[in-house]
UniProtKB/TrEMBL annotation:
It comes from the Bacteria. Keywords: Membrane, Transmembrane, Transmembrane helix. The chain crosses the membrane at residues 45-66, 78-100, 132-156, 168-190, 197-216, 249-268. Residues 1-21 are annotated as: Disordered. This is ABC-2 family transporter protein. The keyword Zinc does not apply. Residues 1-18 have a biased composition (Low complexity). It comes from Bifidobacterium stellenboschense.
Length: 277
């Protein structure tokens, strides 16, 4: 039987040490991205997301006569509130996500940060993935907060009837997933194109798609990505009647898988391009 020499590294220790170093580097890189957000004043943009969405929901739903339907037994009030919430997401998220991605990437372009980070062991593709983690986590939080705040607003103004928790939860998952998908696209554009007006312009086009792609067939709306905002609306009008819409989990799931694979593949190519250069 072999006895380990005191103080000698074991195979498990040899494996664990690089893994621990990688995890430490990842944590430091993510914290560095949050420090950049602080310097770039990105936090107000994240605050604007739920505040703007709940503000748009309040303005639109009250303007559409919410107070006349507070006690309706057919759930009209909840349909109206959630439809206006969906419109708020469609109006704000495409633009704000484009601006956030632009600011996080532009600092690397201006300060030759891509090269500097590469010398520190973070190739461009890996840095893009870290930026997605750092920017995506707040997107998840503010999206869930916006849905929760909308629910609180409806209860506060006196909407009666059962709270449609399954529909609210389904929409929260769907809209958060679509927002993360859009964020990956905006980050890739902002990372490879130095002129950040390009990414902002894509965000403006996305704003139009998010608000008007409801009239598109599914096969056209979903591939545009931003058009998915219109297709996942929790409620909407059919003629003059407000009706519930089923959450398209399958379509959103397929988009998420495709987006994840493409994002990982493209960022891996960024790494290989850096290695060859």
């Amino acid at each position: 039987m072999r006895h380990a020499t005191p103080g000698a590294a074991t195979p498990d220790a040899d494996t664990a040490a690089p893994q621990s170093r990688n995890e430490g580097m990842l944590r430091r890189a993510i914290m560095n991205e949050y420090a950049k957000m602080h310097r770039l004043k990105v936090l107000p943009l994240y605050i604007l997301m739920p505040v703007g969405i709940i503000g748009a929901t309040m303005f639109e739903s009250l303007g559409a006569g919410l107070t006349r339907h507070l006690t309706d037994t057919d759930g009209t009030a909840w349909k109206l509130v959630t439809a206006c919430m969906g419109a708020g997401f469609s109006m704000l998220m495409p633009i704000l996500l484009a601006v956030i991605a632009s600011r996080q990437a532009d600092i690397e372009h201006l300060g030759n940060g891509w090269l500097f980070q590469s010398t520190a062991g973070l190739a461009p593709g890996r840095l893009c993935r870290i930026k997605f983690i750092a920017t995506g986590l707040p997107v998840i939080l503010v999206s869930l907060l916006a849905v929760a705040a909308t629910t609180g607003f409806a209860l506060a103004v006196g909407v009666t009837g059962p709270v449609p928790w399954p529909r609210l939860a389904g929409y929260a998952v769907a809209v958060t997933t679509i927002s993360l998908i859009v964020l990956t696209v905006q980050l890739l554009i902002a990372s490879r194109v130095e002129n950040q007006l390009a990414g902002i312009g894509i965000g403006l086009i996305g704003f139009l798609l998010a608000n008007f792609a409801g009239a598109f067939p599914d096969w056209l709306a979903y591939p545009t990505l931003w058009g998915a905002y219109a297709k996942i609306m929790p409620a909407g009008y059919q003629g003059e009647s407000l009706v519930w819409n089923d959450t398209p989990y399958a379509a959103v799931g397929v988009l998420a898988v495709i987006a994840a694979v493409m994002f990982l593949w493209i960022t891996a190519r960024f790494d290989r391009m850096e290695a060859r250069s």
